[in-house]
Write a structure and sequence with these properties.
Blueprint (H helix, E strand, L loop, with lengths): L1 H4 L2 H12 L5 H4 L6 H13 L3 E4 L2 E4 L1 H8 L13 E9 L5 E6 L8 E2 L2 E3 L6 H13 L7 E11 L6 E13 L11 E2 L2 E6 L9 H10 L4 E8 L8
């Protein structure tokens, strides 16, 4: 039980690194925590393989990110169920797709379509419209249901399950080029228009594109290898 076994300082370290890494000791350490106390908790996390030390500082390991995303979150809440989301495939009149460069774990820096959890009491369409507004500022009422994507991310060698998500996919076509959205930033990430040829696009984006292009709603189940960030710019 990862979350319940971790000290609150250790949880805060993992959460901080999940949102920004690498970080050095001085960047991670809160001013109210003594050096020896903070050093003790860093060593505990290193020994448990929740964090690793690289040239630029400390980073979260796959084990920590999995705890955040699927197996158990750092607050100690366990789930054995897939995550249910809505995902919205937005295009403009140039045929480009609106992507969000993520600021949140587990795939920080990766590009995805606007998406998010379904809230208690929401219909699927209500959830999709809310996520569209929150992630992009687009206020729409004419989104179209494109299908369901049931997808997993598996570790390449061990085939260990990292993410299991069920996405209810919708599409929306902007009547213009949407130039005002390019580079728009929020705490979720940064928006950009793409022809889907750029690097570091999460693989489910391409499957979502296939669902949308079918014209008739469909269901797709697929397992992907966990993506590896291409560091080249």
């Amino acid at each position: 039980m990862v979350g319940r076994d971790l000290h609150h300082i250790q949880k805060e370290i993992i959460l901080s690194l999940a949102h920004r890494s690498p970080q050095r000791f001085s960047q991670l350490q809160p001013p109210q925590i003594p050096n020896n106390t903070f050093s003790y908790h860093l060593k505990k996390l290193l020994h448990a393989e929740f964090i690793a030390l690289v040239d630029g500082g400390y980073i979260p390991t796959r084990k920590a990110l999995k705890a955040l995303q699927y197996e158990e979150n750092i607050e100690g809440e366990t789930s054995n169920n897939p995550v249910f989301i809505t995902a919205i495939y937005v295009t403009n009149n140039d045929g480009k797709v609106l992507l969000l460069r993520r600021n949140y774990p587990p795939f920080i820096g990766w590009n995805c379509v606007p998406a998010g959890l379904i809230h208690q009491g929401e219909s699927l369409e209500q959830a999709a419209l809310r996520e569209l507004s929150e992630k992009t500022s687009i206020e729409a009422n004419d989104i179209e249901f494109a299908g369901v994507l049931d997808f997993q991310y598996l570790e390449d060698v061990s085939r260990d399950l990292f993410v299991h998500t069920v996405a209810f996919v919708y599409s929306y076509r902007l009547p213009d080029r949407g130039e005002q959205l390019e580079g728009m930033r929020s705490h979720y990430g940064t928006l950009q228009w793409s022809d889907l040829s750029s690097k570091n696009i999460l693989p489910e984006v391409y499957t979502i594109a296939e669902l949308v292009r079918r014209k008739e709603p469909g269901v797709k189940s697929i397992a992907y290898d966990e993506p590896i960030m291409d560091k080249e710019k």
